[in-house]
């Protein structure tokens, strides 16, 4: 989990998310810099628009309004599918 926080911090600061930067952030925070997890995360983030993914995650976390229309239920079901797929991907990364 620390690797994800380090990647988010680097992204927020506008720094490149690479193995060297990740290792420095983790070591500065007093965390164990597990090189295999760092490599996996850096590889999985290549080509990912982190801002867009964070926006989607924020939208998915919002609770639907009470008495929502069926159209919103379909959208919520689709969001749940995306969250499940994302969770599966993360579990593959971090076991």
Question: Would you write up a description of this structure?
Answer:
By secondary structure, the chain is mainly α. It folds into 2 domains: 1-48, Arc Repressor Mutant, subunit A; 49-95, no CATH class. The chain is built from 5 helices and no strands. The protein has helices at 2-12, 19-28, 35-45, 50-61, 70-94. Helix 1 crosses helix 2 (19-28). It is elongated, with a radius of gyration of 16 Å. The termini are close together. The relative contact order is 0.11. The mean pLDDT is 80.
Give a quick rundown of the structure.
The chain is mainly alpha-helical and 95 residues long. The protein is built from 5 helices and no strands. The longest helix is centred in the C-terminal third of the chain and has 25 residues, at 70-94.
Topology:
Layout: H1 2-12, H2 19-28, H3 35-45, H4 50-61, H5 70-94
Helix pairs in contact: 1-2
Number of helices: 5
Q: What is the CATH C-level name of the largest domain?
A: Mainly Alpha
Instruction: Give the percentage of residues in beta strands.
Output: under 5%
Oligomeric composition of the shown chains:
single chain
| Rg over C-alpha atoms, rounded to the nearest angstrom | 16 Å
* Total separate domains: 2
Q: Calculate the mean pLDDT score and round it.
A: 80
Query: Shape, please?
Result: elongated
At CATH level 2, the architecture of the largest domain is Orthogonal Bundle
Q: Could you name the ranges where pLDDT drops below 50 across 5 or more consecutive residues?
A: none
Following the backbone from N to C, one meets helices and strands in this order, namely HHHHH
In total, the number of strands is: 0
Query: Quick one: biggest sheet?
Result: none
Structural classification: mainly alpha
What is the name of the CATH topology of the largest domain?
A: Arc Repressor Mutant, subunit A
């Amino acid at each position: 989990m620390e690797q994800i926080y380090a990647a988010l911090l680097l992204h927020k600061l506008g720094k490149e998310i690479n193995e060297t930067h990740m290792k420095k952030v983790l070591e500065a925070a007093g965390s164990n810099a597990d090189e295999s997890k760092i490599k996996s995360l850096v590889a999985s983030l290549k080509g990912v628009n982190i801002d867009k993914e964070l926006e989607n995650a924020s939208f998915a976390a919002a609770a639907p309004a009470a008495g929502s229309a069926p159209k919103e239920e379909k959208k919520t079901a689709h969001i749940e599918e995306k969250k499940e797929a994302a969770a599966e991907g993360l579990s593959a990364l971090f076991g």
